[in-house]
Amino acid sequence: MRYTILLHYPELMAQGELDQAAIERGQAAFNRYASDLDAAGVLLSAEVLQPSTATTTVRAVDGDFRIQDGPFADTKEKLGGIFVIEASDLDAALGWAKQAPSVEWGPVEVRPSGIHFENGAWTT
Amino acid sequence: MTDVATTVSRLAKEEGGRLVALLAHRFGDLDLADDSVQDALVEALGWSVIPDQPVAWLHTVARNRAVDRIRRTAARSRRETDAARQQAVLDGPVLNGSGEEEPRMIVEHSDVGDEHLRLVLLCCHPALDRDAQVALTLRLVGGLSTAEIAAAFLTSEATLAQRIVRAKRKIRDARIPLTIPAQLAERVDAVLRVLYLIFNEGYLSRGGADGPRGELVEDAIRLTIQLRELLPHDAEVGGLLALELYTRARADSRFEGGELVLLEEQDRTRWDLELIEQANGVLAEAMTRGQPGPFQLQAVIAQLHANARTAADTDWPAIASAYGVLEAMTGSPVVALNRAVAVGMADGPRAGLVLLDAVTGLERYHLYWAVRGELLLRAGDRDAALPALLQARELAENPAEQRHLDKRIARIRS
């Protein structure tokens, strides 16, 4: 079963609250995490997102589009990364979620995928 | 109720969980297992004579109903969908490997230990919220009907049914597994917390009369006994069972004519000595395992109370020190409050008040103020005791406790 692991955490890096050494430690931890998932053969895709300040939101309002600066929700913790994995069940997926480096800084959400698009078609 | 209806209701409560567990494991579908066991129980209500092996009968019928349901689903999908989908249903995991083999008959409980434990752990999975854990455990493991659970928790049957449907849907959609997890201890803790919550829900609501809420006490004890059979080497399961038995032994003397009777004023001849003996044995056995834990400690405290012939015989210094260990283990302010009470009894009210001053976070808890008031009263400070008891009265929600506080306040004022 496919699970999407959504990492939420405060954007300390964007706010200049982290020194270079801390940034490098974080990058190394993410690198290790992705490599572990890959080596276990469960990693389907991984994205670490740019800060929410680079986000643009599109909304359909009264038959028109409204383009706005910034993310949809203004919270302390922002969506910062997404890992899509293949796991046998929720316990296995939770096991991987606990190993996400960002779990130290913010909540990690585990959500089963509904359907996904692959080879030109939606599949379950 | 007729004899047959009584027997079926008893079978549902004592054996329903094992049957659901067995079928869920076999067919890999919790909902199907639950529905099929319900089908079998409904059919059992039509018994003209009770079969020699009623559990085996229920198991066979439930299994057959499960296969019927799978066939119906397959037939419907043959009609409605294309050939590929049809093949998937027929060859899918539901029937996989279990279509033809003759199932074993369950007669002995030990035959289904593993499946049963899996079901209990699933119902108390941390991915489900606490209310859902309680409802699922009572429904699937405890064999209670939705109506019985709704009545016990003072909620509507529709709300309760909805809660169970949602929980089952989450189990299916997020694929919460029916397995024995690697970190078993952590998951067993969650089960113990659910069982204790069920017990307390029943115990605290007991007002002398035994309504459906009071029944929860017996349900929780029954489920804890079953869990102990499944996990005979877990000391904390024994600790919880002993705690429940000690508490149950005193439950009937806790109320007189609908009025709350405090521990020191209870008629100890009404305590159930047989249950206390049973609890002593369970606790002694648990404590030989060298795995101390909060439930065993609470049971030790309950034991010290239960084995005191009169209130004056109570070994308060031992109780105070047990609370000290429990407080260090849990960091709970409610435990700290109880410790202050015990120290107040062992070393005098002033010593209790010193500890109470260090307790924080209970400003909205009526018992915090009641304890403060009683300690001040015993220390001879009526003027300070009165506002504390008035505060307790304002926060108390249980009518029996409200009446008790009213009496205390009236006595001070007179």
Describe the structure.
Chain A is of the alpha+beta class and 124 residues long. Helices cover 23% and strands 39% of the residues of chain A. Chain A is built from 2 helices and 8 strands, in the order E-H-E-E-E-E-H-E-E-E. Chain A has a 4-stranded antiparallel sheet with strand order 2-5-1-6, covered by helices on one side. In chain A, a hairpin with a 2-residue loop joins strand 3 and strand 4 (64-69). The longest helix of chain A has 20 residues, at 20-39. Chain A is flat and about 45 Å long. The N and C termini of chain A lie close together (9 Å). The model of chain A has no long low-confidence stretch (mean pLDDT 90). Chain B contains 19 helices and 2 strands. Helices cover 70% and strands 1% of the residues of chain B. By secondary structure, chain B is mainly α. In chain B, a hairpin with a 2-residue loop joins strand 1 (255-256) and strand 2. Classes of the chains: A alpha+beta (124), B mainly alpha (414).
Give the second-level CATH assignment, the architecture of chain A: 2-Layer Sandwich
Secondary structure: number of strands of chain A: 8
| Average pLDDT taken over every residue of chain A | 90
For the record, what is the CATH homologous superfamily label of chain A? Dimeric alpha+beta barrel
Give the strand order of the largest sheet of chain A, numbering strands 1, 2, ... along the chain. 2-5-1-6
| Low-confidence sequence ranges of chain A | none
Structural class of chain A: alpha+beta
